[in-house]
Each structure stands twice: as C-alpha cells, then as structure tokens.
Inverse folding.
C-alpha cells in the first residue's frame, strides 16, 4: 500500500494532503469518488530501509530504454516484442524485473501507459502523460524519441548544477583532511620541540590543545566524520529534510540563483514537451508544477493556471506572479497571439539553458579565488601559530 501526496486548491491556496492506495490510478479513483480534483498528485518518497528494497533506475538506464524502445517501434517491431528485447539487453536486474512486470501487464490487456503508471518510482507523471498522448495519437515512436531528448537534456542540466554545487564541497573536504593531518602529525612535533621552553603564545597553545584533543579522542573524531554524512544523507531523503536543504540552498547567495534558473528551465522544457505531444494546456501546467520543485516557480505556475481557468490571459498570470523575468511573459504573449505557445517555450528553454551554463561557469570562477583566500588564510594562521615561539625566543636572546 503506497502513500500519495496531492494538492488541492482551497481559498486561493494550495493545500497538501495524503491518501493511501495501491497505485496512482486507484488514488485518483478514490479522490474522484470523494469529488476531489487534485491540482497534482504524486507518490510520497519512502525512506530507503522501509521501502522493501525498491530501487530507483538510473537516468542513464531510463534514457537508454526510451531511445531503444523508440527505435524498435519505428522499425516495425511490436510493443510487446520491443519490451522483450529491452529486457534481454538490460544490464540492471531491478530494471529487468520492472520490464518483465510491464510486459506481463501488457499481455494481460492493460494499456502501455497504465503499465508504466504501476511503477511511479521509475516512470513519473511527466513520462506517463507523454505516453498517454502518444497512445491517443498513434505517435508512440516519435513521442518516445522526444522523451529521450528530454531525459538527456534534463540529466545534463542536473549534472551541471550538481557539479557546480559539489566542486566547493570536494575542495573543502580535501583541504580539511590536509589541515587535520597537519594538526595530528605536524603540530605534535613542534609541541615536543617547545616543551619545557617556557610559556607558549596563546595562538600556539590553542593549536597544541586542539591537537591533543583530537589525538586523545581520535576514535570519536573518526566516528563523527563517518556518522555526519550518513545522518545527513538519511535526513535529506525524508520529506522534512528535502524541504530544509531546498530552503538552505535557495537562501545561499550564489547557489540559490542557480537552483532557481535550473527549476525555470525544467518548467519550460517539460511544459513545451507536453504541449508538443498533445497534452491539454491545464494538464501540462499541472505536471510541470510538480517537475519544477521550486516554491517560487510553483507559485508562478499556480497563479498563471488560475488566470487561465478564469478565462484570463496566461501571459498576464505569469507577469502578475512577479516570479519570472519580463522576457518569459513577453514570449508567452507572443505565443498566445500566434497560436504557437509551445514554440515560444522551446525558444525560452534554449535561451535560459545557455544562461544557466554561463551562470555555472561564472560561479566556479568566482568560487576558486574565494576558496584559495579562505584556505590560504587558515594555513597561514597555523604556520604563524607554529613559529610564534621561535620569534619569541629570538626576542628573548636579543
């Protein structure tokens, strides 16, 4: 029995609720029976050790499967045979089991989209909605090719953002290990040299005391170093942890802007892809709302959706939200007037992807000198602390 999170609009605000059901489809049916129409619904992420060993397939594996399936169907191979061939060529045991279950359901008479919907931890709402439209239009091979392009570009953006955020962390970890090594192995040598030579300067004594503290509690220190990342990883996988780290990153001067820009690009690309595949306007907005995963972007999407449902202009809703740059709602207005809003958002996607690349490159260039100054300052203070007694003894001799 899974747990699904859904948002409903109450008094102009989105309120989050939860419902238990075996599948996403059953969750929707339960809500329909209660006369509840959710703005969007998704499966609640489970804590790893409580999820029954359910593992998520990597983006690379999903992209390979999508492209392979598109190629096989375009070549005239039936859907069931194509999936069987994908099972034979898959290198992941978990994904093989998933594909076998999909094939079994497909042979039992279920639609392909419904088969995918039974595995929401792999095939999200965006993927399933694209396949639903493909089934309705008979363009499964084309839509799967578009899905492959989307997944590839989305993964590239994710990798760039991740690299930009991991770079300073890796540099800091390596630097801290070097500093810890100096404190544990170099400082004691100097401490032995200065022993019995009189009172040490305050800075030197503090460094020696820190070295003694670490040496005497080395096991606890190593245990803490191992425990901290494990605890943080566990906390990050919980719902409250995700919210905490998301807010932390968004409030950071440099990384917050990258996070916002990446979320905006995800919204543009998903919205454009859904519209191109034939998903209706409001449904495309609902799915894109979930994909963006950024409170400000979601606020802008929700307000613009409200404008559309009340018969007002979509571009005006984007403008009134004061979330997006002026270029966004101007391009949306051009798309509305020309009847090619999907093309407008495709152009916006290309433009802001380039902007994101430049932003990440600028961030890395900015971080490098900052890290050098900070770490150089720490090492400089340590060197000064170690040689202060030498200067003091020189003064006494003079």
């Amino acid at each position: 029995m899974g747990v699904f999170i859904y948002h409903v609009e109450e008094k102009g605000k989105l309120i989050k609720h939860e419902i238990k059901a075996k599948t996403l489809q059953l969750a929707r049916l339960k809500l329909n029976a209660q006369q509840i129409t959710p703005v969007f619904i998704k499966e609640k992420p489970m804590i790893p050790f409580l999820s029954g060993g359910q593992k998520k397939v990597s983006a690379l594996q999903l992209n390979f499967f999508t492209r392979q399936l598109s190629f096989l169907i375009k070549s005239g191979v039936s859907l069931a045979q194509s999936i069987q061939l994908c099972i034979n060529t898959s290198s992941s045991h978990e994904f093989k089991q998933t594909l076998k279950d999909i094939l079994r359901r497909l042979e039992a008479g279920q639609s392909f989209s419904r088969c995918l919907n039974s595995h929401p931890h792999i095939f999200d709402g965006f993927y399933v909605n694209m396949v639903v439209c493909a089934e309705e239009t008979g363009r499964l091979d084309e839509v799967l090719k578009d899905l492959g392009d989307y997944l590839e570009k989305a993964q590239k953006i994710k990798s760039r953002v991740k690299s930009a955020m991991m770079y300073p962390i890796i540099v800091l970890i390596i630097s801290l290990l070097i500093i810890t090594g100096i404190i544990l192995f170099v400082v004691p040598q100097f401490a032995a040299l200065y022993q019995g030579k009189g009172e040490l300067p305050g800075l030197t004594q503090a460094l020696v005391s820190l070295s003694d503290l670490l040496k005497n509690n080395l096991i606890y220190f190593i245990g803490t170093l191992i425990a901290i990342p494990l605890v943080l990883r566990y906390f990050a996988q919980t719902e409250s942890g995700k919210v905490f780290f998301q807010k932390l990153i968004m409030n950071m001067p440099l990384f917050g802007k990258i996070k916002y820009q990446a979320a905006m690009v995800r919204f543009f690309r998903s919205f454009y892809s859904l519209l191109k595949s034939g998903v209706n306007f409001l449904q495309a907005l609902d799915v894109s709302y979930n994909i963006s995963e950024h409170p400000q972007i979601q606020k802008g999407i929700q307000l613009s959706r409200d404008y559309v449902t009340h018969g007002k202009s979509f571009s005006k809703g984007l403008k009134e939200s004061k979330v997006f740059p002026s270029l966004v709602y101007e391009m949306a207005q051009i798309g509305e007037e020309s009847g090619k809003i999907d093309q407008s958002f495709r152009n916006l996607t290309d433009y802001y992807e380039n902007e994101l690349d430049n932003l990440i490159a600028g961030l890395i260039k900015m971080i490098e000198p900052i890290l050098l100054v900070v770490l150089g300052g720490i090492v400089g203070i340590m060197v000064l602390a170690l040689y202060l007694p030498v200067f003091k003894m020189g003064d006494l001799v003079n």
Q: What stands out?
A: DSSP finds 16 helices and three strands in the chain. The mean pLDDT is 82.
